[in-house]
């Protein structure tokens, strides 16, 4: 087994174990209890919900908490602080995506027999399109992993990623907070 295959297997195992741990955490109610407590404190709650907003496993309860906070606290505050938390969550995922997943995709890609697939990924337009698609996914209430994978594959640098992630998460959370506030009227 090559080093790339071992790394792919090891990372696959990490993902599998993290899914099991996330399932256990959700089933025991730890996530819901933490987020419910966080709703009482605008800044801490926004920050914790922001971190949770970045992951596929916690995006749904985080969106609910951010919406509730947006109803009872200034939406700009909720979005500003929540986006800081989301950037931290995104940064962890982004570093993993960029450092490991990109290597795995390159390994799998080089083993591919498809010339068309290779031509598509060598296009300059795709290198511009991937970060844009990634940013749009981050701004949406969809889980950030796919958007972060696109950004990782495009080799975007961390100093560029951080303000982009903050801005897109800020906009996404702000929309959630204002929609929640408008629906409460």
Automatic annotation (TrEMBL):
Keyword line: Membrane, Transmembrane, Transmembrane helix
Transmembrane regions: 12-30, 42-64, 76-97, 125-142, 162-180
Protein known as: TVP38/TMEM64 family membrane protein
Organism in which the protein naturally occurs: Candidatus Komeilibacteria bacterium RIFCSPHIGHO2_01_FULL_52_14
């Amino acid at each position: 087994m090559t080093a790339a295959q071992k790394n792919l297997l090891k990372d696959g195992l990490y993902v599998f174990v993290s899914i099991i741990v996330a399932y256990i955490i959700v089933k025991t109610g730890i996530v819901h209890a933490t987020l419910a407590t966080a709703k009482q404190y605008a800044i801490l709650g926004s920050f914790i919900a922001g971190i949770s907003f970045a992951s596929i496993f916690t995006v749904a309860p985080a969106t609910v908490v951010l919406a509730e906070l947006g109803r009872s606290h200034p939406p700009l505050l909720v979005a500003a602080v929540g986006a800081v938390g989301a950037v931290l969550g995104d940064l962890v995922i982004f570093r993993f995506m960029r450092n490991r997943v990109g290597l795995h995709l390159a390994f799998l890609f080089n083993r591919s027999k498809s010339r068309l697939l290779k031509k598509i990924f060598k296009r300059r337009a795709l290198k511009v399109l991937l970060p844009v698609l990634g940013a749009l996914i981050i701004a949406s209430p969809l889980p950030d992993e796919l958007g972060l994978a696109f950004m990782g594959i495009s080799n975007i640098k961390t100093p560029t990623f951080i303000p982009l992630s903050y801005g897109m998460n800020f906009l996404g959370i702000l929309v959630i907070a204002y929609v929640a506030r408008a629906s409460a009227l």
